[in-house]
# Entry
Amino acid sequence: MSLLKEFLSQVGEGYLLIDRENRVIFGNEFLTKRGLLKEGFEGKPYYECLNNLAVVSCLAEAISDRRDKLCNLDHEEREYSLYVFVGSELTVARFSDITDLKRYERSRREFVANVSHELKTPIAVLKSLLETLYEEEEREEKRRFLDKALRRVEDMRRLVEDLLILTKIESGEERIKREELDLKLLVESVFELLESQAKERSISIHNLVEDGFRIKGDWDKLFLLLKNLVDNAIKYNREGGKVEVKAQKDKPNIVVEVCDTGMGIPKEHIPFIFERFYRVEPSRSREMGGTGLGLSIVKHIALSHGGKVEVESYEGKGSKFRVYLPSE
Ligand SMILES: Nc1ncnc2c1ncn2[C@@H]1O[C@H](COP(=O)(O)OP(=O)(O)OP(=O)(O)O)[C@@H](O)[C@H]1O
Ligand SMILES: [Mg+2]
# Structure
């Protein structure tokens, strides 16, 4: 134990060890120096020697549920992430200072938001100029060039729009409504938008959500989430394939599933597909005109609703995206 204590006193993170009777048996210098833990803590209940209420309630919840827990908190102008591991004999709390990481994340978000915002107007102007030229042009060859240019400008417009949406949702600035929604109707309106795209590739789309199935959330955001999942299910499907959307209750969640009969996603790519700009086969995806932001938007919309998204995929057979949303 003394070797372990010596090691823990030198690391750049905070460690707090609590026994089964809720008494602190060890806390390293990181915690006392930063004012999170009072001096003379040994043998005392943890709630008497911690200086931060958020830490106490995170620990109390983890210990009473007997389940590991992750919390983020502020203390004396620094931000920490606190991970509580609950063992049978010992509870270990690890504090990591994430102030610089958060600062970096904020400046990245602001930079992306500012650049995207500045690009919006010139792209809109370029688009309308090209449209006018296209309409006035009578020579077939020139029209083809202009059509190509217009498509590229449309890609840029979508990229900027997706980046702006993603930045807003990710930062938590965007207010998420919690209205009661009819899921079948929501899926229907997503299908209306993507119907022609599916028809072009002879893909049948099926809304298998029960009549009157209700969920709680933000119509516009959940529309965007489903639009991205169904768009992928069509885009990465085989000619003549099938797309199904279903929903079921699995307390305390509602699970919405989007299934396709497409090419599937190779196992090694699965951990990364929800990251910004990640694509399994960049060359093929580029041909399809995507930006690689779709699933990142899906993930952040699910998170902003207090939910999550998971994927199950079989190469050559298809994929199943499951969105979990709290039912209350
Ligand atoms: N249903 C699916 N079947 C097979 N591969 C998929 C499926 N959904 C996503 N992928 C893979 O994951 C990658 C990331 O998807 P994502 O929706 O984020 O980007 P995208 O579709 O390329 O572009 P965007 O959605 O921004 O237009 C895709 O490029 C594709 O390779
Ligand atoms: Mg996509």
Q: What stands out?
A: The pocket of adenosine-5'-triphosphate (ligand 1) is lined by residues 228, 232-233, 236, 260, 262-265, 273, 278-281, 285, 290-296, 319 (CB under 6 Å). The first strand starts at residue 14 and ends at 19. Residues 194 and 231 are 7 Å apart (CA to CA).
